[in-house]
């Protein structure tokens, strides 16, 4: 049997309820959903979906340093998503 590990995540309560309802409709558990996500990250070596937010101007971030998210631990979720999307957009245009 393969070794497994426990990983904890803090979630917004409302988003958690909504996501868990979707998982139930799909017939999978939240743990299965997380494992599927991680498996796709490993297979694709990327985030396996497009990250979009209509309130974010992604073009303004293309000139930022690529490791900003790791250097600034005080980023909020929107700032992190902006930086991540910029990284994903730039991976095809080195």
Structure commentary:
- By secondary structure, the chain is mostly helical.
- It folds into two domains: 1-49, Met repressor-like (Arc Repressor Mutant, Orthogonal Bundle); 52-94, no CATH class.
- 50% of the residues lie in helices and 0% in strands.
- It has helices at 13-26, 30-44, 68-71, 77-90.
- It is globular.
- Keywords: Toxin-antitoxin system.
- InterPro entries: Arc_rbn_hlx_hlx, RelB/DinJ.
- This is DNA-damage-inducible protein J.
- Belongs to the RelB/DinJ antitoxin family.
Tell me roughly what share of residues is in helical segments. Answer: 40-55%
Q: So, CATH architecture of the largest domain?
A: Orthogonal Bundle
Structural class determined from secondary elements: mainly alpha
Strand content: under 5%
Rg, Å, rounded? 16 Å
Given this structure, which CATH class of the largest domain is correct? Mainly Alpha
Outline of the structure:
The chain is mainly alpha-helical. The protein folds into 2 domains: 1-49, Met repressor-like (Arc Repressor Mutant), CATH 1.10.1220.10; 52-94, no CATH class. 50% of the residues lie in helices and 0% in strands.
